[in-house]
Write a structure and sequence with these properties.
552 residues; alpha/beta; 8-stranded parallel beta sheet; 3-stranded antiparallel beta sheet; 18 helices; elongated; binds acetyl coenzyme *A; binds 3-methyl-2-oxobutanoic acid; 2-isopropylmalate synthase activity; LeuA-like_post-cat; 2-isopropylmalate synthase; LeuA_allosteric_dom_sf; transferase
Length: 552
């Protein structure tokens, strides 16, 4: 690895040790959320959204509760321009939503941007150009003072156009590549723009500080934000915004630290679509707040629907492991995780039962699950999935939740091994339906013993049956008999689990039946059959061979 090609140095330390206030702070309210799905997200797509998909995304963002939406880059293309026109002239922007439009610092493109919003009663025009040394020298071929002049002239041009536009036009300014710009230069240029647009608490400037390409650890970004927040001339006339990208995979952490460091607003996208590794994921940020008891001020109660809509607009799937939304993020395959989740669910159900309240009213406390999937419109169905990494707890949970049957502890262990053999052999996941089929095949068959049901009569049919069995020379007695109601999915009113000692060897059986007695008789016959199967395989119950002759 040619590591010598990469610079080791971190940026200068901006804050004196011990003075940073963001360290240890946790959020107590949601920031101002700004969606850039329709601009930064859109510009990164292989197939940028057409008008229909743009509209769908806009409507979704409004439904979720976004009040600040960047609707496009109107000077980029006819589609972008047309979409902005449709929204601003079509009366489709709710009164409590403010839209913004993006423009680079090029006069003809600024003009085109204002043309797009002509007639609007309110909008934000977002001016952006890079400020970092590499961009100044390589992209613009300008000195710092020439880049400062670019910002000044563009801001002045925008103010002039806004004065003539009629509506309430406000401004956003992004020193693109802020995170790798010399801090003093970023501060100077931000102060200059704030001065030109006359940023005041009544008419604030949104100063958006992007980590256009994430280059440092999140704590470095937090220091940069705190330093800017402390040093801006017109801080109280500024909405301090961040716009993290995810090149190092730490955009969410960077945004959270930046909020603790004084940022008021976050720009990002749903599920983190955006240039390269994407923008910060607003769903993750919002649900991180939610899971720590802070109202995110976005309605994410139906994540599957949000995901479907976003996948359609972006024509890109949300990965299986994406926080909160991925297919597998509320799923455990591993035995110990399943065991803990299953116990946690039962514990919660018991507490809800004891308190006489629905489960959804209780504080959520289930091991391995940071939030209740149902709070996000997801179900418990896929929480426990079974493969060769699974254990008895998870398998029993599937039987309990899908078929309403509660295996006794000993039978759980035994059936766990039965399923383990199946998954070891296939190397694959076993679906809940297959688990049920294996259970029925393993315990539902009473084989040659079926005919013995006829002997199960009298006061206690199980005793009567066993007397008959012993009469055939089989040494069998009941060790445990667990009677229960058949669950709604089991197809029977009663279920019974019987552990017999056959020639002093324990063996389990299970039976379903219309009555408790019928289920018990089936369970005993199932256990006898299973012990007989072992005898036929050369197991340890030699008397059975004779007994089976007797049955015939
Ligand atoms: C960080 C961000 O996400 S910024 C947003 C980026 N988004 C996009 O680029 C998507 C939409 N863009 C487009 O459709 C096109 O780039 C257009 C239509 C806007 C402009 O297209 P073109 O005129 O062909 O220019 P092109 O895209 O090649 O831009 C390069 C020129 O713009 C200049 N430029 C780049 N960014 C900016 C900026 N923010 N402000 C001013 N000038 C800029 C470059 O220096 C270069 O100038 P040069 O020709 O004098 O060297
Ligand atoms: C326009 C700016 C905010 C941007 O998209 C970026 O720097 O990534």
């Amino acid at each position: 690895m040619p590591v010598h090609r990469y610079r080791r140095a971190e940026p200068q330390a901006l804050l004196e040790p011990g003075t940073r206030t963001w360290l240890g702070r946790s959020p107590d309210r949601a920031p101002l959320w700004s969606s850039v799905d329709l601009r930064d997200g859109n510009q990164a797509l292989a197939h940028p959204m057409d008008l229909r998909r743009k509209r769908k995304m806009f409507d979704l963002l409004v439904r979720l509760g976004f009040k600040d939406i960047e609707i496009g880059y109107p000077s980029a293309s006819e589609t972008e321009f047309e979409f902005v026109r449709q929204l601003v002239t079509g009366g489709r922007i709710p009164d409590d939503v403010t839209v913004s439009v993006f423009t680079p610092a090029r006069p003809e493109l600024i003009d085109r941007t204002f043309e797009a919003i002509r007639g609007t009663d309110r909008a934000v025009v977002h001016l952006c150009h890079a400020t970092a040394c590499l961009w100044r020298e390589v992209v613009f071929r300008k000195t710092p003072s020439e880049v400062l002049a670019l910002a000044q002239e563009s801001a002045q041009h925008m103010v002039r156009l806004a004065d003539h536009a009629g509506g309430d036009i406000r401004f956003e300014y992004s020193p693109e590549t802020f995170n790798v710009t010399e801090p003093e230069f970023a501060l100077e240029i931000a102060n200059t723009v704030a001065e030109i647009v006359d940023a005041t608490p009544e008419r604030p400037l949104t100063l958006n500080l992007p980590s256009t390409v994430e280059m440092h650890a999140p704590n470095v970004f937090a220091d940069q934000i705190e330093w800017m927040s402390r040093n801006l001339d017109r801080r109280n006339g500024i909405i301090l915004s961040v716009h993290p990208h995810n090149d190092r995979g730490t955009a969410v952490a960077a945004a959270e630290f930046a909020l603790a460091a004084g940022a008021d607003r976050v720009e990002g996208t749903l599920f983190g679509n955006g240039e390269r590794t994407g923008n910060v994921c607003l769903v993750t940020l919002a649900l991180n707040l939610f899971s720590r008891g802070v109202d995110p001020q976005l309605d994410l109660s139906d994540i599957p629907a949000v995901r479907r809509a976003v996948e359609e607009c972006n024509q890109m799937p949300v990965p299986d492991r994406h926080p909160y939304a991925g297919d597998l993020v509320f799923t455990a395959f591993s035995g110990t995780h399943q065991d803990a989740i299953a116990k946690g669910m039962v514990h919660l159900e018991d507490r809800a039962g004891a308190a006489g309240v629905p489960l959804g009213e209780l504080p959520w406390d289930v091991p391995y699950l940071p939030v209740d999937p149902q709070d996000l419109g997801r179900s418990y169905e896929a929480v426990i999935r079974v493969n060769s990494q699974s254990g008895k707890g998870g398998i029993a949970h599937v039987l309990r939740t899908r078929w309403g049957i509660e295996l006794p502890a000993g039978l759980r262990a035994e059936f766990g091994q039965v399923i383990q053999r199946v998954t070891d052999l296939s190397g694959k996941e076993v679906e809940p339906g297959q688990i049920w089929d294996v259970f029925r095949a393993e315990y539902g068959d009473t084989g040659d013993w079926a005919g013995f049901a006829a002997f199960a009569s009298g006061g206690d049919p199980v005793e009567a049956l066993l007397a008959e069995v012993r009469g055939c020379g089989v040494d069998a007695e009941v060790e445990q008999l667990v009677r229960d109601e058949g669950g709604p999915g089991s197809g029977a009113a009663h279920v019974c689990y019987a552990q017999l000692l056959v020639a002093h060897e324990p063996v389990w059986g299970a039976g379903l039946g219309a009555t408790s007695h019928a289920a018990a008789v089936q369970a005993v016959l199932s256990a006898l059959h299973r012990s007989g199967a072992r005898a036929a395989d050369g197991g340890s119950v030699p008397q059975l061979a004779g007994a089976r002759e007797g049955v015939r």
